[in-house]
Amino acid sequence: MAIGTKVSVGVMVAASSLANCRTTLSLVQFHLPLLRPRLPSAGPLHNLPLAHVSNLIKSGYCIQTSQEKNNYTRSCKQRAFFGDGGLELHDAGATALVVAGAYTLVSTFDKLTSANLIQQNLSRKLVHILSGLLFMASWPMFSTSTGARYFASLVPLINCLRLIVYGLSLAKDEGLVNSVTREGKPEELLRGPLYYVMILILSAIFFWRDSPVGVVSVSMMCGGDGIADIMGRRFGSLKLPYNQQKSWAGSLSMFVFGFLISIGMLYYFSALGCFQLDWSCTVQRVALVSLVATLVESLPTTGIVDDNISVPIASMVTAFLSFGY
Ligand SMILES: C/C(=C\COP(=O)(O)O)CCC[C@H](C)CCC[C@H](C)CCCC(C)C
Ligand SMILES: Nc1ccn([C@@H]2O[C@H](COP(=O)(O)OP(=O)(O)O)[C@@H](O)[C@H]2O)c(=O)n1
Known about the structure:
One of its GO terms (biological process) is vitamin E biosynthetic process. Keywords: Chloroplast, Kinase, Membrane, Plastid, Transferase, Transit peptide, Transmembrane, Transmembrane helix. One of its GO terms (cellular component) is chloroplast membrane. The chain is mostly helical. 62% of the residues lie in helices and 5% in strands. The protein has two domains: 6-82, no CATH class; 87-323.
């Protein structure tokens, strides 16, 4: 075989011991750089003498279950392409790209607001809607390594630090203040915007693209709550009986757009193979999450707890109980 070309290698196993293997030993076809030692020819490992398999384990190979095989195959392909250290480089590059995207988004709306092309309130809401949804949409850019979610969470973490620095007026960034606050006061950055990015950090780390819970919760906070504000301000003449600050138009918009955006984001991740869903159940579950989130958002609790905490937390709890993971 020519050096440097990738070859198909018959057999690979990884991760658990012989005793713990829950499925038959796996045969996996994938490409590895030639430099790795040539492995036994293709064939089920259980045909090999145990002594030979244990030698494989001693030399760094071990047995994998079918799920580990799939995960391992995928990460092997990535390692084969990027090399062992390549996954971190891949994730660092994706992080830098998304951080740049965040900065571009906020500065774009600052320029639109400064040029009086859009009102400050609308600018804030559009940043509210787009930031989290685009951040979530960037998750498939990251690698399949276990550290990818932590790299991704650096994006909202950097913005969290940015909000704290400028919110405490340790430095000035009028563009940021103008595009994400109601009244242009720096201290406003320490409330809604700060809670918002903290929820993004939690969703990336604890749910990531492996679970529909984070996807639905961020969709409700960004899409649902964001559009409720826009529609409620414009068409919200008929107020809710238990909250004169909120309207039927705003709440109905939150339910409908929160539901639609959640379904859309779930379809996006499902189509990319991040998880598989039974759509007949999923539609009902998302409708339940959207209803609970809409009811929580409609409550007269603005002075007690910010919507950017109550809406996503209520969504996470409801989604976790109904999806189960
Ligand atoms: C305006 C925001 C929250 C205020 O909410 P509310 O008070 O109206 O209820 C959102 C603040 C966004 C933050 C400054 C920037 C977040 C960037 C995000 C983590 C990454 C986006 C990346 C993407 C590629 C644009
Ligand atoms: N369910 C809702 C939500 C907001 N709104 C309108 O949007 C405005 C801002 O809503 P909000 O206080 O929830 O705003 P944020 O805390 O989300 O920034 C409200 O004062 C209402 O005029 C509504 O009419 N109905």
